[in-house]
Amino acid sequence: MLLAIMLACIPIADSSLLPGFLETKPAFADDDDGGDDDGGRSGASSRNSDPSIGSRRSSGRNLFRGLRNRFLPRAQRSGAARPYRAQAPQPPLPVHTTDEIVATGLTAQQIDQLTAYGFVVLDHAEIPLLVSEVVKLRKPSSMSLEAARDRIRTFGPPSIADFNHFYRPEQEAIPECSGPHCDATNLVGWPIRVTGPTNCGGDVIVGLIDTAINADHATFAKGQVEIVRLVDEELPQSGRQHGTAVAALLVGAADSSTPGLMPGAKLIAVDTFQSAARQDDRSDVYELIRAMDLLASRGAHVINMSLSGPQNMLLERLVTEISDRNVVIVAAAGNKGPKADPAYPAAYPQVIAVTAVDRNKRVYRRAGRGKHIDLAAPGVEIWTAASVSGARLKTGTSFAAPFVTAAAALLRSSGQGMTSAQVHETLTKSAQDLGDLGKDPTFGWGLLNASTLCAAKM
């Protein structure tokens, strides 16, 4: 009211002042928490939707600032010196649970011995791929975590024990594009016949291990999407932004605003994540192992894991077993920067590790690097589904991995008969070389080339 009276009392020579002051901006997405899982704020992409917005200043806003400075005390005026308040540094996110060990290959007698030492069996599950149970144990309070792990390891093969490590979705980037025209499929020569009437993808099952997914999003209305939540239902559900975006890239409806690469494929999405403090969506290795075993038993041809964490002996064992059964595993290289340690499961040799590039084939600045990198794919400014409705832009290696997953699914679809090793070799040999000649730690073998995948099938 006061602002209206002040404006009414001031002669305005230029009528363009008020439209600039009252300007509104369009919105493209509706996310469930008002924020973007890539570190951006809600509406970040919509603010950039008009190239002129953000490049011009509104005189109306300057007028308001001048009025405010006239009536407010000096200490509260814009431009007045403000005391510096340093933000307290956030403690690093935990790498593993503080009191749990995960083990497999233990006999009933060995478990009895451990309980006599003070270990407590928290949970256990049959893992057919390992022909054994995986057991989650709480260590005795008098024993360090390292000592507890080493105590179980004294049993020797075939038992394996390690910390209950955490793995997190790669969702730390900031979207920067200006609209849905930022289409990445042409960059890799994605064959139109996958979404067209011939549907060269055939009969294929894609597995996904990720956060929660909004199954009611319009992009999944006509698809074959099955969601399985392995985590205890009493635990807080993880955010739906990451999982929904990755799933839509894979199987979003061809006629929706966020068409997927394989709209005709069946997707089995396993939610192994829970929401912890500080908006920390994380899955422990116990749940990851169960999810991978479930997908292999359900006939998944390829598994997408847009997540990362530390090396773990049990995870490595299951990756080996699944690969030996010709299930292709694709994982994001991670967004911790070029000097970060290798991220897992991407760094295991049986896994196809995917880094991200922009539309100019430049590597994403925060992508992980190393000799384990296999392929590059579009992962900067990718248009995909928002968590509630509509769409928004995503950036990160998480959103590059689905391109390679979809390519592997095409090769593994009906009539291909390829092993996981042959899929790996076919994709890397056909890649467009980037960076140094041959394989390099930045781009791997180069940019995914999907232009001949349908031709190879037909």
From TrEMBL:
Compositionally skewed regions (Polar residues) per UniProt: 43-57
Ribosomal protein found in the keyword field: no
Active site: D210 (charge relay system), H242 (charge relay system), S398 (charge relay system)
UniProt GO molecular function: serine-type endopeptidase activity
Domain (Peptidase S8/S53): residue spans on this chain: 202-446
InterPro entries xref list: Peptidase_S8/S53_dom (IPR000209), Peptidase_S8/S53_dom_sf (IPR036852), Peptidase_S8_Ser-AS (IPR023828), Peptidase_S8_subtilisin-like (IPR050131), Peptidase_S8_subtilisin-rel (IPR015500)
Keyword Hydrolase applies: yes
GO biological process: proteolysis
Keywords assigned: Hydrolase, Protease, Serine protease
Domain of life per record: Bacteria
Location of region: Disordered: 27-60
PROSITE patterns named in the record: SUBTILASE, SUBTILASE_SER
Listed Pfam families: Peptidase_S8
Homology family: Belongs to the peptidase S8 family.
Protein's recorded name: S8 family serine peptidase
Native organism: Mesorhizobium zhangyense
Lineage, top ranks: Bacteria, Pseudomonadati, Pseudomonadota, Alphaproteobacteria, Hyphomicrobiales
